[in-house]
Here is the input.
Amino acid sequence: MTAVLTTPPMTAAERCDRCGAQAYVRVLLASGGELLFCAHHGREHSAKLREVAAEIHDESARLTAAPSDAER
Here is the structure.
């Protein structure tokens, strides 16, 4: 049996650890712990984050997605 790590969708209450904007990128570190970034800082630090991450959950595509009927 293989364990699958799942993370819940991010909410507007979760803030970027760098600037305080809404977080769209969650980085679970290989050493333990978690970092949250806005889309801008997630992109800016992506190369280094890939080196230290166990998992990266990126929801920044939500910024350009068309709103669903429920959101209108």
Remarks:
- The first helix runs from residue 39 to 44.
- The longest strand covers residues 53-58.
- The beta strands are 25-29, 34-37, 53-58.
